[in-house]
Amino acid sequence: MAFTTGFMSYHVWKVKTSSKAIAVQVIKYEDRKRVVVKHIGSAHNEDEVTILCNNAANWISEQTKQIPIFGQEERFIPIEQCEYLGFQYTFLYESLLHLQARLGYTYFGNKLLNDLVTIRIIEPASKVRSLELLETYFNIKHRRRRL
């Protein structure tokens, strides 16, 4: 179970002890090292482990004021009720646009020109096909008359 706040991420960690018990701890990672933030307790059976994990999740929620993303199955929507709407490459688009801005290429303020450059980096094609690809990849629409 993971909770994130700002740049700090807490996790519920279970580890076997030398006495064959299972210790439940709240940890975070600093400089690629695991740091124990709080030791919740040790358990000797699965029911105790479940209780301690819930206690750890509650402690993290109180500290971070955030709810967990995963781990609460009753909050999930069944896949049968979901509809796939598509996928957008927003991070790629924003990264390439930022790179163009750093190079001074966005100085003229022509969004269509910047979008054509961006899509041609990803998939070189004709201008008309590039407009179609912009809509497919990034959901960006330009009129053909502006081309």
Report on this model:
With 147 residues, the protein is an alpha+beta fold. It folds into two domains: 2-75, no CATH class; 90-146, no CATH class. 38% of the residues lie in helices and 22% in strands. The chain has a four-stranded antiparallel sheet, with helices on one face. Strand 1 (2-5) and strand 2 form a beta hairpin. It is elongated, with a radius of gyration of 24 Å.
Q: Average pLDDT value?
A: 84
Rg for CA atoms: 24 Å
Shape: elongated
What order do the strands of the largest sheet run in, or round the barrel if closed? 1-2-3-4
* Low-pLDDT segments: none
- What's the number of structural domains? 2
How big a fraction of the residues is strand?
A: 15-25%
Distance between the termini: 50 Å
Report the structural category.
alpha+beta
What is the makeup of the main sheet? 4 strands, antiparallel
Q: Percent helix among the residues?
A: 25-40%
The count of strands amounts to: 4
Briefly summarize what is shown.
By secondary structure, the chain is of the alpha+beta class.
Q: Which short descriptors sum up this protein?
A:
147 residues, 22% strand, four-stranded antiparallel sheet, alpha+beta, single chain, 4 helices
In terms of topology, how is this protein built?
Elements: E1 2-5, E2 8-16, E3 22-30, E4 33-43, H1 46-64, H2 90-102, H3 111-122, H4 127-138
Antiparallel strand pairs: 1-2, 2-3, 3-4
Helix pairs in contact: 2-3, 3-4
